[in-house]
Amino acid sequence: MSLLKSMKASIVLLLVGGFGAIWLLSQPWVTATIYEPQMPTVETARTGATLYPVSFGAAWLVVACAIAFFAFGARVRRVLGVVLIFCGAAILIAPIAFYLSDAVASVQEGRQGSSNYQSVVVETYPFVWLMFLFGLAAALAGASILLWSKDWATLSAKQSNSRKPVEKSDWDALDAGEDPTVY
Question: Are 25 and 125 in contact (CB under 8 A)?
């Protein structure tokens, strides 16, 4: 459980979940070869992003949150945690909906014209179940950020865009060609 309290582990989970979901949603999930009498053979494919665009957008949002995570303080990070939990849930919906839906029907929608097919050969992508793991990783990282990000380090004032002028030491003023005794 202490591993989930780690900021590095949460960021790694976000990046793995986000980029893994983007990659997997870019793959063809359903491929169909349609044979009709006296017509050319038609092959059609649907990617996960075509079937579930909300999951694809959520995966990009997970990656964006992982990158933006370092620029914000504890309050905004907690909001990001809530957003990431919802994004993880949106990614989790894709494999569940895919296995509960009729893959042949989604492919046949793309074929306009007659419906008297001689035969239809449908192949499904065997690794769709990995989407469940990627969505779970994003949701788990979001929960970790929500619960423990208040204890994590943020950017220091020197690294963030601070408006306070930095006081120079006498040696810095001499290096800049200024007289440090004149105020």
Answer: no
SS3 state at 109: coil
Report which of 105, 109, 99 is spatially closest to residue 122, judged by C-alpha positions.
105
- For the chain, the structural domain boundaries read 7-156
Question: Who contacts 164 (Cβ-Cβ below 8 Å, separation ≥6)?
Answer: 157
Given a contact cutoff of 8 angstroms between Cβ atoms, the answer to whether 46 and 104 are in contact is no
As its CATH architecture, domain 7-156 has Up-down Bundle (1.20)
pTM: predicted TM-score of the whole model, two decimal places: 0.73
Give the SS3 label for residue 89.
helix
Confidence category of residue 44, pLDDT binned at 50, 70, 90: confident
pLDDT at 115: 58
54-85 pLDDT, tens digit per residue, is 999 999 999 999 888 888 888 888 899 999 99
If residue 47 lies in a helix (H) or strand (E), which one and from where to where? strand 42-47
Q: How, if at all, do strands 28-35 and 119-124 pair?
A: antiparallel
In angstroms, the CA 69 to CA 168 distance is 31
Among candidate residues 48, 92, 88, the one with its CA nearest the CA of residue 65:
88
pLDDT of amino acid 177: 82
Q: In residues, how long is the chain?
A: 183
